[in-house]
Amino acid sequence: MQKKLIIAIAMAGLALAPTLAHADAQARKITIAGDPCTIPQAKALADAFTKKTGVEVVLVPGKCRTGVSEVLDGKADIGLATFNFDKSNLDKSLIDTVVGKAPIVMVVNKANPVNNLSQANLKAILAGKIRNWKEVGGKDVEIKNVYLQPCVVETMSYQAEHYGHDINRLNPEKPGNPVAGTNTLVEQDEAAIGMQLYGHESLNVKVLTVDGNLPDAKSFPAKYAFYEDYNIVTKGEPSGAVKEYIDFALGEEGQKILASIKHIPLKRIR
Questions:
Q1: Half-sphere exposure of 108 (CA within 13 A, CB side)
Q2: According to the model, what pLDDT value does residue 27 have?
């Protein structure tokens, strides 16, 4: 009788094993929702994180600012956003962790002779007080402003200058990926100037310095102060594989990855 009982318990354990293994597999998978401004960084982090931990990371790209709504609706474990959050405006169920700083740069066509703008001239361009490139050392052609990325455009409106109501804007024929769209319009028009998160600019555009500076760990924020936070948002306190991912992003390896794609790490890296 005792022998039969032992066999029965063993069989039950074997039957349960696949279920437990399936549950563990489910727990070792996380879904991250983001947008064109956040998914490239997430992919770089996710590839390294999966290689190190074996946790599968599913990236779900969407329109600008959809990452936070996806996690709030329970459709993703993590929502990404490049934005300087007013924490008081976040849903009380959400936890925001800043893992890096995403600098904003101005990009122009490679044929544009202008390489640098003073901060005063940049503000005057945004305000519509400077309208021709010749006023800042360029050719005699009207400046065309490419402002496609909502979060970047909003951030620059209060970190730099409010936009003039009648500035000359250059828009794509059809809406699409605003990061790629910014690069394309600037590549195609010598008079264009666009805003881009540093690291998202194409090889066929030129990044302008501001007062002679590009954003890096040495110039930020005293000499170059245009940036957004790179936010990882969760519903409630992160745990399990989600917490592992956030810890990885904040750790030495994750911070090096962010620095390699021109973001500013939060911690000094060796």
A1: 19
A2: 56
pTM of the model: 0.85
70 SS3 class: helix
Q: In the 8-state DSSP scheme, what is residue 269?
A: -
Q: What is the CATH number of the domain that holds 117?
A: 3.40.190.10
DSSP state of 171: -
75 lies in which domain range? 30-102+229-265
Q: Are the C-beta atoms of 212 and 117 separated by less than 8 Å?
A: no
Give the integer Cα–Cα distance in Å for 193 and 205.
10
Q: Which of 214, 151, 215, 221 is nearest to 182 (CA)?
A: 151
Does residue 49 sit within a domain? yes
Question: How many structural domains are present in the chain?
Answer: 2
Sorted by sequence, the CB contacts under 8 Å of residue 121 that are 6+ apart come out as 130, 135, 136
Q: How far apart are CA 82 and CA 231, in angstroms?
A: 6
- How many angstroms from the chain centroid is the CA of residue 251? 18
Mean pLDDT by 10 residues, the chain (270 residues): 45 41 57 94 97 97 89 96 77 93 97 98 96 98 95 89 90 92 97 97 98 94 94 96 98 96 82
